[in-house]
Amino acid sequence: MMTTHRQLGDASDASDGADGASVGEAEDLATLLTRALAEVDRSQKDLAAASNITYTRLNHWLRGTRGTSRIAPDDLRALTAALRHWGADVSVAEVFQAAGRAVPGRAGDEREARLLRIYRALPVSGQRALLQHAELLEGAARRK
Fold it and tell me: Of 18, 68, 92, 108, which residue is most buried, by most CB within 10 angstroms?
């Protein structure tokens, strides 16, 4: 397994959503990934291995036989990190846009710890309500 690409939490990709870079007309994910792989002379298998995504799943996304709306944000960031490590000119924002998704905000350790403290302090009914609300927010973010 290749581990030389940037880690997902690196600050170097935190600002990628801010520039709003795009390549002419908005590309779909398959087109963007195919273009980027050609740019760096790498294969789908290379990208799958570097991103820790199965080749089968990646191939489904590239052929359009599996939708991109449910791809985990960490998977989209891993794809971007691998491509950027190889020198491809792609940003996190472009990859998320190509997948039809808004770029999610980064969760800092302090905010995650605070959310976990709140969750743990709630009774079971409150925990269920918090999870339900969070899932609604997540669904709304996916539709943007």
Answer: 92
Residue 127: closest CA among 136, 119, 118, 135? 119
* pLDDT reported for residue 75: 93
Per-residue confidence at 111, pLDDT binned at 50, 70, 90? confident
φ, ψ of residue 24 to 5 degrees: the values are 55, -120
- Six-digit token string for 123: 């009774």
Architecture of domain 11-98: Orthogonal Bundle (1.10)
Domain spans of the chain, in order of start: 11-98, 109-143
Q: Which residues contact 41 (CB under 8 A, 6 or more apart)?
A: none
pLDDT in tens, 27-46: 899 999 999 999 999 999 99
What residues contact 102, with CB distance under 8 A and at least 6 apart? 96, 141, 142, 144
Q: Which two tokens stand for residue 71?
A: 């791809």
Cα angle, residue 102 at apex, residues 114 and 136 outer, rounded to 5°: 55
